[in-house]
Design goal:
The structure holds 2 protein chains of 2 kinds. Chain A is an alpha/beta fold. Chain A has 2 domains: 266 residues, FAD/NAD(P)-binding domain (3-Layer(bba) Sandwich); 160 residues, Cholesterol Oxidase, domain 2, CATH 3.30.410. Helices cover 24% and strands 23% of the residues of chain A. Chain A has 13 helices and 26 strands. In chain A, strand 11 and strand 12 form a beta hairpin. In chain A, helix 1 runs parallel beside helix 7 and helix 5 packs across helix 13. Chain A is globular, with a radius of gyration of 22 Å. Chain A starts with a strand and ends with a helix. Chain B is mainly alpha-helical. Chain B has one domain. Chain B is built from 9 helices and no strands. Classes of the chains: A alpha/beta, B mainly alpha. The interface between A and B is large, with 94 and 82 residues.
Chain lengths: 519, 214
C-alpha cells in the first residue's frame, strides 16, 4: 500500500489504480448536509480534511432532467432502495452533496415542540434552541434560504393551499434554498442550472477552497482501532459504483466523523468492530424514523401539470399538533408528478394503470407525512445483510396505520375542497373515487404492507444523541460517540425522533453547531 | 422498484423446484418473444429468469404500451436497472421470478400444471392479480416490486411519456449553469500526487490521444 501525501482538491476513486494510504487531521464519511458542512468549518479552521463519498461527483452538466438517468445515478440502490419487506420506498441521495443534491429544497427550522420532546423524553439536556440561532443565521445566508415568492407557487401547490384554506386549515409558502430558481421542476434529479444551493455548490466548494480533499466513488467499509479510531478502511468503486476489490484506500486521521446519513451511518458503525464495545452499542441502528408518506392523487378539472415548477412551495402543518397515543401527527405537502414517479405510485397494471397515467397532466399529487417517533413509537431499526449492506426493518404498527388512515382522509377532504373531480388513494384494490365515501370507509386493516403506496424521503435517527449514555449512542454535548473520543456523528441519524418538518435545515444547523465547537 | 429481501422465497422456491422437477421439460411451450435476448446481453438475470420477467412485463403493460415498445425490450432495460442493486438483492429478485414460474410456488390454485411463461396473457394477468391480493405479504411484495419496476422503467423515458401530455424537460440539452459561482471544480489526476491511475483511465487516455492528433 503506497503512502500518498494529502493534497486538497477532488479525486475520483474510479480512476485510482492502486491501494493507497492517506493521512489528515479530520476524516469525514459522507458529503451530504452534515458532512459537507462539517468539512467547510474544519477546513476553514486550517485543518486538513478528507471527505469520503461513495457516490459520483456529478455537476450541473450531468443533470439532464431525465428520470431514466437521474434516479439510477443519484439515489441509493439506483433509486430502488426499500424497507426490508418492500413496503416503503426509500428515496435517499447517493452522490456528492448527498440528499441536498436531490431534495426538493424545502427548509424549516427545528420545531420547538420537537426539541422540547427531546429534552423531556430522550435525555437531550445539552442542546437548546438558542444554540442554533447563530448557525441558522449563517446557513440561511449562505444557502439563500428565503420564503418562496408567489410567482414560485405552481398549480399543484396552489391546489394544496386552496383546499386547506377552504377548510380553514393553516397552509403557507415554505422557505427554499435557491437563488434565481429557473422552475425546471427537476430538483429531485439534480438542479441543471445550479439555482439550488445544495452542498454541491456551497459548502463543498467552500471546503475545497480551503484544505479539503474530496474522494468520490470511495466506499467506507469500517472504522478500525482499539480504544480510539486509528483509521478508516475504504475500497475504491468503479464508475458504476461497484467495488474494485483489489484497490483499498486507508485513511489515518486524528478525528473521524460519520456523516453518511440515517441508514448508512448506523450501518457503518455496525460494520466497525471497534464500536461493538462502546457504551451505546446496543442502540446503534435503533430508533430509525422516516416521516412515512401516504399519497393521494386528485383528478382536477383543468390541467395541473404537476411536472412543472418548483416541486414544493406550500406546506400545511394544521394537523401537526393532533398526534396522540392512538395515531401520529402529520403534515401535508405537495409531490411532483413526473411520469416515472407517478407510475410507481399509482395503483394497478395494464389498462387500469394506463388510464390513470393518461390523466397525468390533470393529476395533483399531495402527501401526508407522519411524524414518527413520538408517543412511545420506536420506529424502525437497521441490521446488516451478508455483504454488510444496511437492511431497514420498519414495522407498520397499528399506531402508524391509524395515522395513514387519518392522513388519507385529510388529503381527500382537502382535494375535494379544492375542486377535485375524483381521487386515487393508491391502494392496490381501489380505483378512482368520485366522492369521499369510499375513502371515509377505509379502515386500519386496509394498510397492510404492500397494499398501498408508502414512501420516505426523510431518513432520520439510528444513532440517537442524548446526555445519558445508557440511552444514547452519541453525546449531545459534542456529538462524540460515547466511549470513543475521536469519533463524532454529524448528520440526521442523531435525531432521537423524527422532526415533524423537512429535516435539511436542522441538519445544517446542528452540523454548524457541533463542528464549530469541536477542536 | 426493487424489492429488497425477497425473504421466504428460498423455501417457496424450493417447493416450486420440487414440483417443477416432476414436469417434463419440453411438455409446455414457453413465452416465445424473448429470443432476441441472449445471456450475453443480460447484466443481472439469467436467461431463464429473463424469460419469466418478459412474460410478467408483457402482462403488466397495456396493449398500447406494448405496441409502442415490446415487453422483452423493456425487460432488457429492467435487467440493466437491476444492476445497480447488490448481488443479494438481484438473487432475491430472481428467486421471486422463479417462484412465479413454478406452479407449486405460485401460491395459487390456478393453472397448477403450467409454468407462468407458458400461460396466455390473460392467465398471467390472473396470476399476478392473485399475488396483488394475496394474504401473504411476500407475494404482495413481489407483485408490487414487479409492477413498480416495470411501470417506472417504462415511463422514465420521456419519449414514451409524451403521449400522456408530458412535455419533458424544459431544456432539450443540459443548459450551461446560470449560477457558476465558485464551484464546478474539476477532479484532479491521481498521478499528480504520486498514485497510479486505473488501467481504464490510462486506456481511455490512449484512445483519445490519436483522435486528438488527427
Amino acid at each position: 500500500m503506497k503512502t500518498i501525501s494529502f493534497q486538497k482538491g477532488s479525486f475520483e476513486g474510479q480512476n485510482l489504480g492502486e491501494s493507497i494510504e492517506l493521512s489528515c487531521d479530520v476524516c469525514i464519511v459522507g458529503s451530504g448536509p452534515g458532512g459537507a458542512t462539517a468539512a467547510k468549518i474544519f477546513s476553514e479552521k486550517g485543518l486538513s480534511v478528507i471527505l469520503v463519498e461513495a457516490g459520483p461527483y456529478h455537476q450541473a452538466e450531468r443533470f439532464r432532467m431525465h428520470e431514466h438517468e437521474g434516479y439510477s445515478a443519484l439515489y441509493q440502490d439506483g433509486g430502488q432502495r426499500t424497507s426490508a419487506d418492500g413496503a416503503i420506498q426509500i428515496y435517499q441521495g447517493a452522490c456528492v452533496g448527498g440528499g441536498s443534491t436531490v431534495n426538493w429544497t424545502t427548509c424549516f427550522r427545528l420545531p420547538e415542540a420537537t426539541l422540547n420532546d427531546w429534552h423531556e423524553n430522550h435525555g437531550c439536556k445539552s442542546l437548546h434552541q438558542s444554540d442554533l440561532e447563530e448557525p441558522y443565521t449563517k446557513v440561511e445566508e449562505r444557502l439563500g434560504i428565503q420564503t418562496t415568492p408567489e410567482s414560485g407557487v405552481n398549480a399543484n401547490n396552489a391546489i394544496l393551499r386552496e383546499g386547506a384554506h377552504t377548510l380553514g386549515w393553516e397552509a403557507a409558502r415554505t422557505k427554499r434554498n435557491v437563488r434565481g430558481c429557473a422552475q425546471t421542476s427537476f430538483c429531485g434529479l439534480g438542479c441543471p442550472v445550479d439555482a439550488k444551493q445544495s452542498m454541491l455548490v456551497t459548502h463543498i466548494p467552500d471546503a475545497l477552497e480551503h484544505n479539503t480533499m474530496l474522494l468520490s466513488r470511495v466506499y467506507a467499509k469500517a472504522f478500525s482501532g482499539s480504544s480510539r479510531v486509528e483509521k478508516l478502511e475504504c475500497i475504491a468503486l468503479d464508475a458504476s459504483g461497484k467495488p474494485k476489490n483489489d484497490i483499498d484506500v486507508h485513511i489515518k486521521a486524528k478525528n473521524f466523523i460519520a456523516s453518511a446519513g440515517a441508514i448508512n451511518t448506523p450501518a457503518l458503525l455496525l460494520r466497525s468492530s471497534i464500536l461493538k464495545n462502546c457504551r451505546g452499542a446496543r442502540h446503534i441502528g435503533r430508533r430509525t424514523f422516516l416521516h412515512p408518506v401516504v399519497l393521494s392523487a386528485a383528478l382536477m378539472r383543468t390541467r395541473v401539470e404537476g411536472f412543472r415548477g418548483a416541486p414544493q412551495s406550500i406546506a400545511s402543518h394544521a394537523h401537526i399538533t393532533h398526534g396522540s397515543e392512538e395515531s401520529p401527527a402529520f403534515f401535508l405537502e405537495a409531490a411532483p408528478v413526473h411520469p416515472a414517479l407517478a407510475a410507481s405510485a399509482l395503483p394497478g397494471i395494464d389498462l387500469n394503470h394506463r388510464r390513470a397515467m393518461e390523466r397525468l397532466p390533470y393529476i395533483a399529487g399531495h402527501i401526508a407525512l407522519m411524524a414518527d417517533g413520538f408517543y412511545g413509537d420506536e420506529g424502525g431499526h437497521i441490521t446488516l445483510d451478508s455483504s454488510g449492506r444496511p437492511k431497514l426493518h420498519y414495522p407498520m404498527s397499528s399506531w402508524l396505520r391509524h395515522g395513514f388512515l387519518k392522513g388519507h382522509k385529510a388529503l381527500a377532504q382537502l382535494q375535494f375542497a379544492a375542486g377535485a373531480r375524483a381521487l386515487l388513494s393508491t391502494h392496490t384494490n381501489m380505483g378512482w373515487q368520485r366522492d369521499a365515501l369510499r375513502i371515509n370507509a377505509l379502515e386500519v386493516e386496509d394498510y397492510r404492507p404492500n397494499s398501498f403506496f408508502c414512501a420516505s424521503a426523510h431518513q432520520m435517527g439510528g444513532c440517537a444523541f442524548g446526555s445519558d449514555p445508557a440511552r444514547s449512542v452519541v453525546n449531545d454535548e459534542d456529538a462524540r460517540v460515547y466511549g470513543i473520543d475521536n469519533l463524532q456523528v454529524i448528520d440526521g441519524s442523531l435525531f432521537p425522533t423524527s422532526l415533524g418538518v423537512n429535516p435539511q435545515l436542522s441538519i445544517y444547523a446542528l452540523a454548524t453547531h457541533y463542528a464549530s465547537r469541536t477542536l | 422498484m426493487k424489492r429488497r429481501g425477497f425473504i421466504r422465497w428460498g423455501s417457496i422456491s424450493a417447493v416450486g423446484l420440487f414440483g417443477f422437477s416432476a414436469l417434463k421439460k419440453n411438455l409446455f411451450s414457453r413465452y416465445t418473444q424473448t429470443d432476441i435476448a441472449t445471456q450475453d446481453q443480460l447484466e443481472s438475470l439469467s436467461h431463464g429468469s429473463f424469460v419469466v420477467l418478459s412474460a410478467a412485463v408483457d402482462a403488466i403493460l397495456a396493449p398500447s404500451m406494448r405496441a409502442a415498445f415490446p415487453a422483452h425490450r423493456l425487460a432488457l432495460e429492467i435487467d440493466k436497472a437491476l444492476s445497480n442493486n447488490s448481488p443479494a438483492n438481484i438473487a432475491d429478485f430472481s428467486k421471486a421470478l422463479w417462484a412465479l414460474e413454478f406452479p407449486l410456488s405460485r401460491g395459487s390454485t390456478q393453472k397448477v400444471l403450467f409454468r407462468f411463461s407458458s400461460l396466455s396473457r390473460s392467465e398471467r394477468r390472473e396470476v399476478l392479480d392473485g399475488w396483488r391480493l394475496h394474504s401473504l405479504t411476500t407475494y404482495r411484495q413481489a407483485y408490487e416490486g414487479l409492477r413498480k419496476l416495470t411501470l417506472a422503467t417504462y415511463y422514465a423515458r420521456s419519449e414514451r411519456s409524451q403521449i400522456l401530455g408530458y412535455s419533458g424537460p424544459a431544456f432539450v440539452k443540459a443548459p450551461a449553469p446560470l449560477h457558476k459561482g465558485n464551484y464546478a471544480q474539476q477532479s484532479k489526476s491521481w498521478s499528480a500526487i504520486g498514485a497510479k491511475p486505473s488501467k481504464a483511465l490510462i486506456n481511455a487516455m490512449q484512445t483519445q490521444r490519436p483522435k486528438a492528433q488527427q
